[in-house]
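Q: What does the assembly look like in three dimensions?
Context provided by user:
Components: two
Sequences:
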Amino acid sequence: MTTAVQEQKQPVDEAADQRRVVDIVLRARTFGIVGVLALFVLITTVIQSRFLDGSNIRFVLAESAVYVVVAIGETCVILTRNVDLSVGSVVGLSAYLSANLFQAHHGIAIPLVFLVGIGIGTACGLVTGIITALCRVPSLVVTLAMLYIVRGVDTMLAGSNEVVASSLPNSFINIFNNTVLGVPDLAIAAIVMVALAAYYLRYFRSGRDLYAIGSDPEAAERAGIPIARRLLTAFVLSGALAGLGGVIWATQYNTINSTAATGLELQIVAAVVVGGVAIFGGSGSVIGAALGALLLQTITSALNVLGVASLWTEAIAGLLLIVAITLDRGIQLRLATALQRRKVRLGA
Amino acid sequence: MPEQIETPSVAAAGSTRERVSGLLRWETALVVGLVAVVIFGSSISPEFFGSYNVFTLCTNIGDLAIMALPMTLIILTGEIDLSVASILAISAETMGVLIQHGWSMGPIFVVVIAIGIVCGLINGLLVTRVGLPSLAVTIGTLTLFRGLANVILGPNTVSSFPAPYNELGVNGFFGISWLSWSVAIFLVLAVITAGVLRMTPFGRSLYAIGLNQEAAFHAGIRVKRIKLGLYVLSGVVCALVGMLYAFELSSAGENIGIGFELQVITIVLLGGVSIFGGRGTILGVTLAAFIYAGLRSALLLGTSINENDYQVVSGALLILSVLVPNAATLARRANDLFKLRAQRQAGALRADSGG
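A: Here is the predicted structure of the complete assembly.
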């Protein structure tokens, strides 16, 4: 009887032990980004003290909001071992159409504009999701195609037309500048959304399922997880958040034409991956992704303050992405050997 | 001998099936598609077959088609290279800067090839030696190389190129007014690639890797070395296309070749190459390239669709080319699902009547 209980207990302990090790490593990964972020801020401030000005911090925080919001959706997709490359175009389309509403319908309510933006994004996500999840076509190909289709639609609708700041109501433009106790409204909204998404992914069944699908799609299917439905949800979520991101983009830049947010998808994928979400799926958190977005934005701002040409931003985002996946691969290999060694020791 | 006697019916059935599937081959569909595009084009505008239009069509497609060749080989092995257009940009913009500084073409040529090799090595080493997924690596290098290209040239545009080269986009191949240099080069390279792919052990090994990498490795194929080689090849080819493209445009500036990766991948997948690797032919890719160019030319000539709108068509073609091969599987799955539901209902009815 006792031996049986012990035998049963042993593997459970071992699994718990492994989980603890993995947990520690993942937490260390998140602290790593915070560390890099702090180091970067420190160095920049030493060279140019203007960097830590209240107004500059506020600006960086507000500017990061778009990236954080879109990165939340992208995280959900990447967790399932897929990728959504269409977000840049969806942000652009939503930004143009929602800002254009003010020209077309004078005095339209701002919440309605936000709803329209989210609706546009949801529609795009639905198309991508249906093709990817129900027809089982690789998301890379579908979202690459959607990236150009949505941008093409944007160009068709916008033509050479441009929404200018003077056509937008002040209350809309001020969304970007408003602060509560010195913290930008947009930053607070982004933090709340990250918290909600983190809670959803950690404690809701459908949230956990995303991790399961990404870790092992076959096992997830055998465990009875409705994969198609979950993938559809992830893509719709990503689209809806990109749509919301588009409206925020409009509050930030005010002048919107059909090229708005071109290439944004690459920065979003870079932010998510730098934030520790495994590109193979199954591991990572929205908090990490949000920190990744903040890091990229801080670097851009620091380069500006230091007087380095903004031309470098794109190259640095690419470099960071490559460094991050290379480091993660190293950590992953180390972790695997460490767990193996531990297992052997516990077994002996 | 006895085996042959025992299984004539099976062999016959097999050959019938082969004959049917031969007719249903993707390449056959592409030939039909190409004929349809040509008929559509010539009916929509008499200019379609004009020497000038064919030449424009050729210059438009040649560069993309050349880049599609190494892309085909990479996708055959189950990998992908999204950085092709950025390598094109970094080579074209470097060339621009060097020409501004008065370099002669010989050394520039060497530099461009070196750029291609280095870019290919970065992609290839990260994929094969570090073991990273090629999708993530080449999204990273897509951004990195494009960013570096922007840093090298800045917001400038170089548009004065030395004498014989600046006419590549105006004059035809050896006086043939409708044939562009890029398409002539593509056709030569396509024949070579098709030959290598079909007849050499190296070519066959690419299919083996794509179908089952593990099995290919155990069969003694040097999987990593071959993949590394393909990335370097792709880098060099794209860098050289960068030169060619800049000469044809008579300009090298910011955003040169942006979005070409989509068009190249569209051509490759439309050509019937499986995104999962192991299936596809150069013939299919060649046909797809001309369908793509013909359709675009016809739409631009005869309808109100412009250059920008064509990216919608391009994206739709890409989605279709991965959806259609899946259609049979989808139909079967849907059928299974209906059967299952019918069985369940029948079971429920039986249970009801039993109770």
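Follow-up: The longest strand of chain A covers residues 179-180.
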